[in-house]
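Entry:
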Amino acid sequence: MMEVEQKFRLEDFQPALEALTRQGANGPNHLEEQDLYWNAPDRDFAQTGEAFRIRCANGQCFFTYKGPKQEGEVKIRNEIEIPLGSKEEVFEQHAEMLTALGYRQVAWVEKIRLVYQVQLEGTAVTVSLDEVKGLGKFAEVEVLVDSGDSVQAADLVRATAALLGLTQWEPRSYLRMVLQARGK
């Protein structure tokens, strides 16, 4: 699947919440997410534009790999996500395995996320309102598509952001922002 998304800084969630209500959004689904990012032993993901993490959300964990980003204001990249099971059962074991394989822990990103679904032009668009520890408030607008549909999906992401009044575009990933805040 291709992930097509755009992130925006928010001072306050209220205007976005009101816009979501006006658009008839479904939600919210409340998630508490902890992401542990890793770097590979054979290449530097910061240089290649890739990302690899273990995400635990409300007790369930996933491996997520994100391929290099295509150029542009809207992020378009390959995304592969594999369910791992409950945090209590698998997190430490998978972290130990990755370390044994030479992967290095890069950073933790923790957030509280409110997830909404909006229908636009017959397509489900996901809007997440995120409170990220140490970084602030953000909105992410995302569509998952097959690889050939990414241009149309980017148009839907931009249109949804405009409908919701999202204007403070943030091009950096949460990982990049956390690393920059730490001076790396």
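The radius of gyration is 16 Å.
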